[in-house]
Amino acid sequence: MADELVFYTNPMSRGRIVRWMLEETGCAYRTEVLGFGKEMKAPAYLAVNPMGKVPAILHKGTVVTEGAAICAYLADAFPEAGLAPAPQDSSRGTYYRWMFFAAGPMEAALSNKAFGFEVPTDKQRAIGYGSIDDVLNALEQAVSQTEYIAGDRFTAADVYVGSQIGWGMMFGTLEKRPAFEAYWKRIGNRPAAIRAREIDDALVPPKA
């Protein structure tokens, strides 16, 4: 049991990104579904993640939180899945670049847009992402140059970046530019992505 991988999630959360990543690795894992509110803020879970948020994983005694960090960790923990360029590979830098672009500038810009917050033009240089247009233009260029975000091979960065693009277009926080639609079409129907969606959809509580 010491080697067990435990996945803490809620099917209506960013845990869906990690579910997809877990299914891509093919590793065995146990899911702990937590409700928003009391369950995530209970002492037992705060001992895992003091933020009281999901997703999180516990693997071989190590806790990892934050979606991008979990994806990067799993890619390295299960190298047989081939979900990260080798450290000496020239695409490793590109892989890190776009993984953490999505976790930083992209996440912040899309979240602000979703809540109707726009950075004043004269303050854009003081904020990490600049403007939403800067973010979308950079992202469009990234997904247009190669088949996958880090080159010609699917990686964990595609799971993370792709999830942000797929959700953004679904919920209207990201423009449906042709480049984004084409990229999502390339990766969104992978068998592991479909499996992950089916698992999480089955866990969503029925509407009252």
From TrEMBL:
Residues covered by the GST N-terminal domain: 2-82
InterPro entries tied to this protein: Glutathione-S-Trfase_C-like (IPR010987), Glutathione-S-Trfase_C_sf (IPR036282), Glutathione_S-Trfase (IPR040079), Glutathione_S-Trfase_N (IPR004045), GST_C (IPR004046), Thioredoxin-like_sf (IPR036249)
Sequence ranges assigned to domain GST C-terminal in this UniProt record: 88-208
Transferase in keyword set: yes
Keywords: Transferase
Entry GO MF terms: transferase activity
Gene3D superfamilies assigned to the protein according to its UniProt record, in alphabetical order: 1.20.1050.10, Glutaredoxin
Family matches, as PANTHER family: GLUTATHIONE S-TRANSFERASE FAMILY PROTEIN, GLUTATHIONE S-TRANSFERASE-RELATED
Protein name from the UniProt record: Glutathione S-transferase
UniProt organism field: Microvirga ossetica
